[in-house]
Design goal:
single chain, 60 residues, alpha+beta, 5-stranded antiparallel sheet, 5 strands, 43% strand
């Protein structure tokens, strides 16, 4: 199930498969970040710096 804080597998540019942490889910786009950024943001009490991926790039 996709929820903020969950890990997700994505297809990145060039076809590479990556795993990222979900920050937020918007209509048609999931905002994600690297695990290191997620942990740093949690410790610092801030929103993680994230990148958007369209749903079609999510691998299940």
């Amino acid at each position: 199930m996709m929820n903020p804080g969950s890990l997700i597998r994505l297809r990145a540019y060039g076809g590479e498969e990556i795993v990222r942490r979900i920050v937020k889910i918007n209509p048609g786009v999931v905002l994600v970040c690297k695990e290191e950024e997620y942990q740093s943001a949690q410790e610092e009490g801030r929103e993680p710096i994230s990148v958007g991926f369209r749903f079609e790039y999510i691998l299940e």
